[in-house]
Specification:
Elements (H helix, E strand, L loop, with lengths): L5 H6 L2 H33 L8 H12 L8 H27 L7 H31 L17 H12 L8 H6 L2 H17 L8 H31 L9 H20 L8 H30 L8
Helix pairs in contact: 2-3, 2-4, 2-11, 4-5, 5-6, 5-8, 8-9, 9-11
Length: 315
């Protein structure tokens, strides 16, 4: 049997698998630490009658009304989805980097942006059903200020899948896919800035400290999150599946849903309503991304050192 082509070898390399596992472990670790911040963020996005206050006050309200454990409601499905999502993203991103490096050795921001966009698209199409389910489970039992929102009753992940498919159809598992596809620019922009700043910091073979990785990861995520937050709000509303919209079928219907929800939020709450929950989102995603990159770099660094593998492809 002939040896696989260089491109296939790059896609199936041990190094790519290490990146994927390290990315998944890093994201799970970071999200577990800052999970309550995500609870506050999604509650503000979906329950539009809840007043936007400082994140500590929102967390205190939820804990008082629903119990301290409610801050971690939906932890397992979120962590499961995040683990799968980041495994897919890091695997695809680093596979494409290795394939592209066969033709062009030097990394450039534009190349990183394109690779990030492709990796994000693959990730969205494969993992959106898991995110729809975990959004429903995360909001189950919540005390909404908006009386139009009704409670769902799922026994777990599989029961949620079955009920959604049975009552809303298979297509409901991909609710929010269109804004999610637009939101692939978020990780794409994040990785573009992260890789660019990391390359600049490591000029002359200089070793980057964990603090520098934390700050670079935080800054990259802050830029990406702020620019795409209105679409993230629409994404959460669509995934919860109780929005009023003008159309739900086809690409044109998806575009109309997104535009309708954006304009409706502006009409009822003003332009700043599109950024409701941004404080909690920035705290959660910036800190989570920063910690994730630290864990990710540590795991890949130690693994490659132990196995004697070169990391030159990454830089």
């Amino acid at each position: 049997m002939s040896d696989p082509s260089p491109a296939v070898a790059a896609l199936l390399s041990y190094e790519t698998l290490v990146h994927a596992v390290a990315g998944a472990v890093g994201s799970v670790t970071a999200m577990s630490v800052f999970f309550p911040l995500d609870t506050a963020r999604i509650r503000l996005q979906v329950d539009d009658n809840r007043k936007s206050k400082s994140t500590p006050i929102i967390l205190a309200e939820i804990a008082k009304e629903e119990g301290i454990l409610s801050l971690y409601r939906g932890w397992f499905p979120v962590i499961s989805s995040l683990c799968c999502s980041n495994f897919v993203y890091f695997y695809t991103f680093n596979s494409l980097k290795k394939v592209w490096a066969l033709k062009e050795a030097q990394s450039r921001p534009g190349r990183d942006l394109v690779i990030g966009f492709i990796a994000g698209t693959v990730n969205v199409l494969l993992t959106t059903p898991m995110w729809v389910v975990n959004t429903r489970l995360k909001l189950q039992g919540a005390k909404f200020r908006n009386e139009d929102l009704h409670q769902t009753h799922y026994k777990g992940i599989m029961d949620a899948f079955c009920q959604i498919v049975g009552s809303e159809g298979v297509g409901a598992l991909w609710n929010g896919t269109f804004p999610s596809l637009l939101l692939v620019f978020n990780p794409a922009v994040q990785f573009m800035f992260y890789e660019a700043m990391k390359r600049k910091a490591s000029l002359g073979s200089r070793k980057i400290s964990s603090l520098e990785i934390f700050l670079i990861g935080a800054l990259a995520k802050a830029i990406a999150t702020t620019t795409t937050y209105p679409l993230q709000t629409v994404q959460s509303i669509l995934r919860f599946g109780q929005q009023k919209s003008e159309s739900k079928s086809g690409l044109l219907g998806s575009i109309r849903n997104v535009v309708y929800l954006l304009l409706d939020r502006i009409k009822r709450q003003g332009f700043l309503g599109l950024y409701k929950g941004l404080e909690a989102k920035l705290l959660q995603t910036v800190l989570t991304a920063a910690l994730m990159f630290v864990v990710y770099e540590k795991i890949t660094g130690v693994t490659f050192k132990v196995m004697g593998l070169s990391r030159k492809v990454k830089h």
